[in-house]
């Protein structure tokens, strides 16, 4: 049996995103549109999100799938977890992507 992760959600400060220590989750819609956090991460990481979104790997991802960009350049973060999920995703898709219910 695998050990459950101790998940702590933190409010993100976009002014100091490059020094965030931990994992960052970026949600990208199925059409490849980046939100505010995604655009900022893409800029800091020298286009890594844009390269992923324009790749065959992203095209083959299903909704709710997650891919990880480990040790992204320009960031202190351990990884960027990129979730392919549309803005109007239903509860089942969100849970499949790993959303916590409160």
Which CATH class applies here?
A: Alpha Beta
**Biggest sheet statistics:** 3 strands, mixed
Instruction: Tell the overall outline.
Output: globular
Q: Considering the protein shown, what is the CATH homologous superfamily?
A: Leucine Aminopeptidase, subunit E, domain 1
Please give the radius of gyration in angstroms: 14 Å
Count of all domains:
1
Please tally the helical runs, counting DSSP H or I stretches of 4 or more residues: 4
The residue fraction in helices comes out at 25-40%
- Secondary structure class reads alpha+beta
CATH architecture: 3-Layer(aba) Sandwich
- Average of the residue pLDDT scores: 85
Which key terms come to mind for this protein?
26% helix; 4 helices; three-stranded mixed β-sheet; Leucine Aminopeptidase, subunit E, domain 1; alpha+beta
